[in-house]
Protein 1
Amino acid sequence: MRGAVLYAPGEIHVEDRPDPTIEHPTDVIIRLAATCVCGSDLWPYRGIAAVDGPAPMGHEYVGVVEEIGDDVRTVRPGQFVVGSFFASDNTCEICRAGYQSRCVRAESVGAIGTQAQYARIPLADGTLVATPEPPPDDLVPGLLAASDVLGTGWFGAVAAEVGPGRTVAVVGDGAVGLLAVLAARQLGAERVVAMSRHEPRQKLAREFGATDIVTERGDEGVARIKELTRGLGAHSVIEAVGTQESMMQAVRSTRPGGHVGYVGVSHGVALPGQELFFAEVHLHGGPAPVRRFLPELIELVCTRTIDPGKVFDLELPLDEAAEGYRAMDERRAVKTLLRP
Amino acid sequence: MRGAVLYAPGEIHVEDRPDPTIEHPTDVIIRLAATCVCGSDLWPYRGIAAVDGPAPMGHEYVGVVEEIGDDVRTVRPGQFVVGSFFASDNTCEICRAGYQSRCVRAESVGAIGTQAQYARIPLADGTLVATPEPPPDDLVPGLLAASDVLGTGWFGAVAAEVGPGRTVAVVGDGAVGLLAVLAARQLGAERVVAMSRHEPRQKLAREFGATDIVTERGDEGVARIKELTRGLGAHSVIEAVGTQESMMQAVRSTRPGGHVGYVGVSHGVALPGQELFFAEVHLHGGPAPVRRFLPELIELVCTRTIDPGKVFDLELPLDEAAEGYRAMDERRAVKTLLRP
């Protein structure tokens, strides 16, 4: 099969790789209908995170079940399925508490690599959710978004305790930040402030339900959020970048007693304890337990209640993955969908 | 009147100070029935926090209302009252959300100094809660504890989402940590693990409801908590110290999706963002909004349901405050009660 491999920073090659096989009786093999490039793929692509030898890439996926292991009970060949970037048994105490991304048996799908024609998905019963019927082609991007960026933005909104009557600020205008805007709106927020200085992303944020746009960053961005909230700060702030500046912007934009939900993969961040203490906000975040939200998100997409697939503004054949990475790296594209 | 003043690290003098007077129509003057020395008073006493000129000390207090300003409506002369270390209006949006310690009009009672015979309490209607009747003398220590250490331990437990079925670990065996044990038990925790290596404090922790004692600290302490929780970590961890070691011990002792409630005043702490991200815990804490809990705590003390006054293991006349500080600094006493 064909699959994308990162050899060194900036060096993505799509090449022939061995077809995956069932390794454990709880595995399934899926044929990818679509996959994509994640903002977090850019960390190793840019050389900020280490590249550990030639690495298969990709952890977002939707596709059709081709083959199932002997112990698989809940999905069957021919079904269209959506899964998350962490395989989970969905039965352990941590999964049952809603933290499937930290399942005691969690396996990284990223290590397997889904920017490929086929992929082995471990712990299939606990990881995959089938759509009610095979989706029409125009719903595939939305379902693919559910696999990570929508699920991650949704978790950010849940972690930030978004709800009716709340004013929500979103730090970060990548795919996750934009879909956090959508999530905040779906979860009933009264006011959703997107923090973005890029006109096309502002437009998408508005389409997803942003009521206000703030273009300022850092202390000026914080001051603008305070102005919009009678000096108090937002009830809920979703952080979708992962840098020191974005985390502090999130903490400082939140009112005392308010909630920061952080889903940007943290790079080089050190949170000052004393400031955090006196800020008196709630902090929660991490790798999104997307599996928790998949049934609901699939239903919202399949009923066309939401259209998160709009975040894909570039679609390429898998063999052109390298251009997909480049376009995102140069911010020419918000998110690249790849067709195997 | 007599009052304690800190001149320099280690130098506490009880001296004649001017009697307080009503400065704003929302003030009251109370005659202190009891006051005490706080663990946080030791930071400037030890020279770790700056001493800013001769500073009146003390922010914990119970007493009898002597005089009220013209706008005071809810307390009257002769009533026995308990208040918190932040005066609050209890009507602003932040107070109504339960964060009176961050009231938009918050005033620090510590700047006024309650280790004295009399004190002016600002924003009296929003700050003070009267007992149903003047309490018998043996309840005074418990009510004084409610003013800060009990309220702070309670907030730690609430911030850590303690509840039925939960396993709770408490990092820190000072008065706040010990009363966090009591709070966890009252809030229905199934198992409460006190982390302490001091035998008399272990004993008090047991009296307050600890089911387990862990004497190890740091990584070994974390390993013991993991052992007690089938490798997962505690559901709720209350941090009541404020150092880098204690914060990391708290974060690492918490299971994914679990809650850290931190109430130790933070000194020199920097939280590593990446570890926090992948730990996937909830963090909440800060200066306790004691006022939120006072009505409930006063009732629990007055009905003799709890006896938080046991944390006072040294009682001295106000004029001997210096010895009270020394005894706590040298860990000869858990907490010193002062009788003006």
Protein 2
Amino acid sequence: MALRLGVLEKVATVFKRHGAQTIDTPIFELKEVLTGKYGEDAKLIYDLKDQGGEILALRYDLTVPFARYLAMGKVSSIKRYHIAKVYRRDNPAMTKGRYREFYQCDFDIAGQYDPMLPDAECLRVISEALTSLDLGPYKIKLNHRSLLDGIFAACGVPHEKFRAICSAVDKLDKSPWDEVRKEMIEEKQLDGDIADKIGSYVSRQGGNELIHELRKDEILMKQPAAVSGLEAMELLLKYCDIYKITDKVVFDLSLARGLDYYTGIIYEAILTGDGVGVGSVAGGGRYDNLVGMFDSKNKAVPCVGVSLGVERIFSVIEAKLATKGEKVRTTEVEVYVASAQKNLHEERMRIISDLWEAGLKAEQSYKKSPKLLAQLQHCEENSIPLVVILGERELMNGEVTLRVVKTREESQVRRENLEKEIRKLLGY
Amino acid sequence: MALRLGVLEKVATVFKRHGAQTIDTPIFELKEVLTGKYGEDAKLIYDLKDQGGEILALRYDLTVPFARYLAMGKVSSIKRYHIAKVYRRDNPAMTKGRYREFYQCDFDIAGQYDPMLPDAECLRVISEALTSLDLGPYKIKLNHRSLLDGIFAACGVPHEKFRAICSAVDKLDKSPWDEVRKEMIEEKQLDGDIADKIGSYVSRQGGNELIHELRKDEILMKQPAAVSGLEAMELLLKYCDIYKITDKVVFDLSLARGLDYYTGIIYEAILTGDGVGVGSVAGGGRYDNLVGMFDSKNKAVPCVGVSLGVERIFSVIEAKLATKGEKVRTTEVEVYVASAQKNLHEERMRIISDLWEAGLKAEQSYKKSPKLLAQLQHCEENSIPLVVILGERELMNGEVTLRVVKTREESQVRRENLEKEIRKLLGY
């Protein structure tokens, strides 16, 4: 938890730096709110027992509850972050950071704004978060749903198969093209020729030069969706340049994202360093129609957002610490109050009470007469920097011993100067 | 959420000051773990649907999961805090801060220690938390389960009725004695004489003088449970004196606490200021046998802890702010980047990018050409202290305008000095 809270705090700091407020939604939603939002994955939703009253399920992500909240509250613009747990009846895989209960860290911008301004900020937020977490090199893959639709149309995919082919393309980050091609042909009854045409597109990635190449593709440019998608990508890449993240992003035609609700730009961040094979650590995109699904008049609120997969990040950081042999402190104790003789517990209590009063983080043994060695050992094991040692004779002289645990240096301190001396040694 | 997070952070600060580490447990527990722990209230437990696999329920409090965690992990000593949500199918009452999903803030000390040392620290923790939250005057009522048992025995209550009579006494904070007496006699088939004897005890409260009085009660002193309970109380009051909270605590024989699992000292904090009628805001006690219920060999781990009812605290603080007409800021934005003419959005992006890079909390409009008045209004409404205003002419001279929102004072600042000037105005 100490490690996790450290990560979550860094993420929240980035979200707050971008002016987001935080909201909370209940852990449960009406079952009907979640129905029809997650495609095949709906089978992973945890349902509550019908005990009378509403039929409830545990939230599956933070995006659908956010959209429901906007529609119910008639909120037409907000920049919010939400760090909370979601629930999926999936097969857990501890080493990959896949759990049934796990944190998501979401940042979303809702509102009717000018093209790509909020979208570019989401990419900047991903970049700041991953940089601040010091996870090593990473790339943010970008693509656009309209462009994908334009490519599918140009290749001759029937319109009703767009989403199915899209979710086949989505598997390219885990499976080789041959397998994805097979799925398109065998499972999704696509013509082999059409699949091959798709293959020639989705293998391409790059930057502005890829946009120029695609602009020369006459068949593709006959698709209005492709034209508008490319225009959006071009503007986004320009904004990425202004936001100084050009070296972090890559325009990747194989990126498709599984969820149905994306309507514009989509993105996914992966770590590219050695031995961090954990797949995507952040993802998101634009979803302009989701809020409308919860509004009685179908009123849309355009949204774009990012979700950080912190469980994967936790496991990367844990592995890193394990390699270095480093331990995370689980408490923040600054000073321990110890006694060198028996029955000094009341004196210890008087002193620790003063330390708490002064706002210092302090603890002591709950035994009346603990052994000095055991007390000092506790301090070393828990990396407590300072220890106050009480002895009868010193107490009679109005003094205590202040010991620096690491160096074992000791000094006699007047009791009335104790807090001041402790602060000095702690450096504040 | 801004208000809530502020409260939770203050509470966590107190818990950490006392050297507690934090742990997390899943939101769901095996149904069998919760069974038989909450008496009549078990009907309020939220069950998950049986979708195959384990039979689960949502946690009802943080104490039972903590005890289960200690037993499963063979942890024999720990000082931990846990701030998380629990779930009860209760009738919500918004104004009283009673919800079906609500936060609890728990601090517990587990381990075999000397009498009353951890217990006194829990009282000190309550006191520090309530003081730091600035909720006005409060009292911490204290009692001891052994003493209550001794009193019941001395009055002639049959042993098998102890817990039932105890839960009747527990209602004295909400109901007058007459009603409680009626419940004892009519529902719990107690003799009227016995009930009256109990009444003469449970109406008493005080400090050390009450201990001396009870010591003179010969019938009571024939009960070993009463003798040991009084001894414990006396030691606790002495420790409270050392911890400088004597003026906050009151020994109150009417305090009984509803839960069955308490075995020693029990306590409850109430606000005593005007117009804050929200009942108890913190409570807890010693429960030495709960962990053993989850251990195959019945191995006990003595525990004592406190739970803060922060939802009630939230509603008290909300009411206080409403009275004063004060608003809580929902974001922490330090500086807004505005433009005075059209199409300066790329310049704004360049500047805000530098501000983020410098760690400043900054936001801007997502419109290419927002109106200046609308931008300034946003700053005033959201109490953003500073605004950088871009104008074409100033930009050509390498300058921007820096405006203090409250005073409307403006100054021209060289772009290269912008971050420095902002920090100066923010006071760091």
Protein 3
Amino acid sequence: MNDIFTARGSMLIAGVTVNGSTVDIAIDEEGMIAGIGKDARKTIDADIIIDGSDRVAIPGLVNTHTHAAMTLLRGYADDMPLAEWLSEKIWPLEAHLSGDDVYWGTKLACLEMIKSGTVAFNDMYFFMERAADAVDEMGLRATLAYGFIDLGMEEKRAAEIKATEALVAHVKARKNPRIQAAVGPHSVYTVSPEGLSWCAEFAEEQGIAVHVHLSETEKEVTDCVAEFGKRPAVHLDECGCLTPRTVAAHCCWLDEAECRLLGERGVSASHNPASNMKLAVNRAMPYHWLKASGANVCLGTDGCASNNSLDLLEEMKFAALLQKFAWNSQTLLPAGEAVAMATSAGARALGTGPGTLTAGAPADIVLLDARAACNIPLHNTDSNTVYACNGGAVMTVLCQGRVLMHERTVPGEEEIVREAAAAAQALVGRAREA
Amino acid sequence: MNDIFTARGSMLIAGVTVNGSTVDIAIDEEGMIAGIGKDARKTIDADIIIDGSDRVAIPGLVNTHTHAAMTLLRGYADDMPLAEWLSEKIWPLEAHLSGDDVYWGTKLACLEMIKSGTVAFNDMYFFMERAADAVDEMGLRATLAYGFIDLGMEEKRAAEIKATEALVAHVKARKNPRIQAAVGPHSVYTVSPEGLSWCAEFAEEQGIAVHVHLSETEKEVTDCVAEFGKRPAVHLDECGCLTPRTVAAHCCWLDEAECRLLGERGVSASHNPASNMKLAVNRAMPYHWLKASGANVCLGTDGCASNNSLDLLEEMKFAALLQKFAWNSQTLLPAGEAVAMATSAGARALGTGPGTLTAGAPADIVLLDARAACNIPLHNTDSNTVYACNGGAVMTVLCQGRVLMHERTVPGEEEIVREAAAAAQALVGRAREA
């Protein structure tokens, strides 16, 4: 079975269920879907054949907001008031993070994401060169941003500019088509207008994305209005940060006019329902306004300290259920739209293709177990995918035609688990000693 | 490995992690925990040894509100207005349900519950004699109630009384200590005061539980006040239906006085967060009031049409997150309390023991994969169990010392999946022809 992880060539997924029909999926040597349908096997001379019977194929999932290495903080502290949780638990531990920690934490995150069907993620954190090493080795796609925080201080801003420029140069020099750099202004409350404007201009100049937190809490909105006389989305827009290359995470407290603004600018809005619920932000993203505005609404898990998992199959259920509950509508965000958020909308946000199972798209494909209880009966694939299945039903994952997991085996899993666990333990030890 | 499913005798789970410590769990020939700790292996001469290394042990989970056979309707219809969903989709399909359907639907539900760590459930549906057959064969515990609905009609009431009496007699005659009967008055809006009073008296006479829906929607409250001049919990109480043997499901719209009443009566209140979110009931159970009142707050998934899974590990996360979000508190329902809801509180509700890993308790034990990403790092078992893991991390399940699943294998799984899928397809076919 190990052969399948190293083999290169054309591939056929034979007799797999897609939207209730049994089809073949043909993948060419460049990892693109050459054909899909009953006759797709004729389009290639397959070097590798994967048996698709007892499997349901869906597009690879895209996680549009993560702080991947925070896997090391999973379960370190929960159920506390936000300010206390950050100042007494999360920040003191993060102060002791090393580049090696970020490497192993990101490896663990990649492992967890692959195990639950994610093929691409949008990350913001520190020591991102080491995150790039992890992504490179694990074989999925990522857009990596250094978290730019100047707190209004000119000296700090100069250092953040340097760190951002260094990461972008590093990622470009790697020339790995799966890894992109982005600019990561943290938020309107941690970055000055000068910092935000620099980020916008640098992203434009480099032709890369902007990854920013937006309107996560009510306090962010009231503070922004008090300091700048305008709401956060308007403030970001005036600094040039809202473009079709922008991914804005959370978007809980946007008002209707801000939603229209995001739609007009073609922004991608990343919904993070589990994190928003756990941190009790007290308002769910206004999906109905964003959808009406034409904004690209996608899905993210946020970091592992505020979720505490990276399972997008689970996150789709949280999204579809939270929208219904919070906005009091039994019909809001139906299953098919939740799947689109986690696939085609995510792929559009990160520029990784159409995010669909169609000829000409990259072969980013997830095979779910059709014999798992969550897929019995199979009245409706979208419904089972969103409401019944979780990451445990994912059997095989392909990214650009390369097999990252097969029959739930990911190469190197034991070492990642061992080293990440050790890194987390050592990190807590260092923080205690300090 | 098949031996482990049929072997009888004393058992040792050797070197397993419980709350961060490595211990042994000794189980005697009657399936009770004989000892737990570093020296527990001395208490028995084990016939069977299960390797507990790389495993985290937690108490078996208890699902206190299900309609198990509705697994056959999983994904049949979703994302519709409630009245239309029920009248156009769910009820027409249910009208064609046979006893065989309930048997295979319940077998599928038992399989799904075992796979996700559930050892006992509280069920209300039709053809419950066939549900009892399924539970008997699958080896877990269940409390089974016939859903009593008289719609205020005397003739219908007489038929429901007959059906209830027949089920109770049937279950008692089986003499299976894992299976109990309960009386199942559906709700205040489907059962007359006379029907409710009969149910209360019959349950008292038989010494069995009452399983009822309570305050799921605002409409239920306003209709009850309009018809009877009192809120649903008060109405149920005046009919004698609130006792320490009562499990009341949902409890979303209880006011503070009703919560105090449930506490005074010693009622078990079953929280069903995923169902409540999916059906947009617009208010979360007031957990803080119920907790303060001393009511026994436990956890349930509801039926598969309104969830659509039976995974209590996932449901714990929904509960802990929904309470925080809906009641705007970052500290409400912390992980440890969520675990207690799904274990000790559930066991108390169904009378299946303490629901803890302690000497003298029934050996209802779940072994989670300690090497799964969701358990790395293991800073805190409760946190990982609630916030990070789902049913996919469950490796081994014991009920009264009997192994129901080992290394994710459940005996007979293939037949259940095949027959339940066929039953669901045939059911839809019959409904279409009609």
Protein 4
Amino acid sequence: MVVGSAVETLSSEQAWELLSTRQLGRIATSVGDQPEIFPINFYAADGKIVFRSAAGAKLAEIAVNNRLAFEADETDDDGGWSVIAKGHARILVSVRDIEAADQLPLRSWVPTLKYDYVEITVDEISARRFTFGPEPDRYGNQ
Amino acid sequence: MVVGSAVETLSSEQAWELLSTRQLGRIATSVGDQPEIFPINFYAADGKIVFRSAAGAKLAEIAVNNRLAFEADETDDDGGWSVIAKGHARILVSVRDIEAADQLPLRSWVPTLKYDYVEITVDEISARRFTFGPEPDRYGNQ
């Protein structure tokens, strides 16, 4: 019984296209072998993922270790997709970068007057589309 | 202008209750300062989060560093919630544990005959409910 066909690996072009349909993602950070995960609203294009962050845990983590993993997905009862990216983050500091980021359709989960923009330069991206099908029988009774 | 009221910190009881309404979450792992993030289907109850994993990157990461972060969320146009947990993972090996896990309503993203159950013992859990409201004006023009 072939069951692997329920998962399809997508191209990086398809990965970026899927990201353009979503605003909600998550980043994973790591400091001292302790992983952390944070939900973000993001904008993805041109090899970069941009999000806003108020001062706090996310920015502190990134200041110590700027290596990030990112994930976004969408599912319904039949299946869905997931995109995973890895890259390096930097906090935007130049007026030009910040003014450009101000034009992006980004919103923060926490309304705040004080925030920074974080830009992830993506080094690796992968995407899978999958269909929830009948389970294979673990004990071999086909 | 008070804007912080759009975010509400929930109790750990509420966090577990929200987790019982979702199947899709993500775990973050970390090995050698490189964070990774993986989507999972999970079952959460009694201070534990259980998921299935085929042999591969997730299990390899957990074998090296069993500290995990976990996240699940739900959003619509008006707002949503996010639950974040941190804990330690172990792969279930006893027949009794595996038989108990076989009874859980868990499915894998990738249909496979060979998989392990991973159980996260949660040390910390937090949850926030938020409402997307009008943006505060960053430049103070109220």
